[in-house]
Amino acid sequence: MRIRATVAALSGTLALSALVVPAAQAADGPSSTPRLAAKAVQAVEGANVGDTEITKVSVNGGKNIVVGTSNKVQFSVAVTATDPSGIGAGSAFLYHGDIDAADGLLTPDDYNGTCKVINTTTSTCTVTITVDPVGDLYNHLAGSGWKVYAAAGANDGDRAEVEAYKSNASLQRNARLTTNASPEPIKKGKTLTVTGALTRANWDTLKYAGYTQQPVKLQYKKKGAASYSTLKTITSDSKGNLKTTLTASADGYYRYVFAGTSTTPAVTSTSDFVDVN
Asked: Residue 163 class from Cβ within 10 Å (0-12 exposed, 13-18 middle, 19+ buried)?
């Protein structure tokens, strides 16, 4: 209920902020304020005003937003809008689920977006959002289920809003991957054991935990070679651990590679060099 009420309040906040009188028109004086306030009320009730149009919304430049268990992560939301009179303001926030029953909410550090003029009718207004895993995120919020509420205001007082713009980026739980090949050194023809662990951020506990039953590739690069080749694919166990064996043949580097999922980014471990004699 708290998030639902906040989303409703923010929708109104953006409706108002998108109608702030641009500096160039501020000299018109207080008489313009009632007119703009009246239009803001109409907008909050769900009606766009005039011929302002939001043409594009970009979250983090289209890249996924990866968050761990402690560090705050910043990303931007850019709202591009057009109006014959030009665009004077724009803002946005992200929410998860339905707007009237949201279970996740990410708001901008400053609701007044920084607007860059593209031409006489079009501008892109950008806000910065800071995600704190402590309090902002829970495991069920990972993935692409986030939407954007975006608003833009024109220089003539018109405005537009998009209540549920589908986000073009996912929020993902950061992943870690390790590799350890042993024994080192090893004689040619002997059995080499390669272990490792695939873990990812748990936003519920704010700790890293094993990512279980996931396919992970074991790759090898012979000393002096230019690239890695995949030797086999194994599956992480019930604790996220990895273990496999192979026959040592020549000096080289071993590493594990995870391709990622919708909720977890791809990750490649640091390589482990094995001396074969």
From this structure: middle
Q: Is the pLDDT of residue 40 over 80?
A: no
**40 Rama class: left (phi>0) / alpha (psi -120 to 50) / beta:** alpha
Contact 235, 259 (CB under 8 A): no
What is the rounded distance in angstroms from the CA atom of residue 137 to the CA atom of residue 204? 8
Domain 2-172, CATH class in plain words: mainly beta
Sequence spans of domains, the chain: 2-172, 174-274
Smallest CA-to-CA distance from 194 within 179, 210, 215, 213 is with: 179
Amino acid at 205: T
Same fold, 2-172 and 174-274: yes
How many residues are present in the chain? 277
List C-alpha distances in Å: 88 to 52, 85, 122: 11, 9, 9
Q: How many other CB atoms are there within 10 angstroms of residue 18's CB atom?
A: 31
Full-model pTM: 0.84
What CATH number matches the domain at 174-274, 2.60.120.280, 3.40.50.410, 2.60.40.10, 2.60.40.730? 2.60.40.730
Average pLDDT along the chain: 86
Residue 92 host element (H or E): strand 87-96
pLDDT, tens digit (0-9, with 9 covering 90-100), for 192-250: 999 999 999 999 999 999 999 999 999 999 999 999 999 999 999 999 999 999 999 99
Q: Hey, CA dihedral for 128, 116, 161, 156, is it positive or negative?
A: positive
The answer to whether 156 and 52 have CB atoms below 8 angstroms apart is: no
pLDDT of residue 14: 56
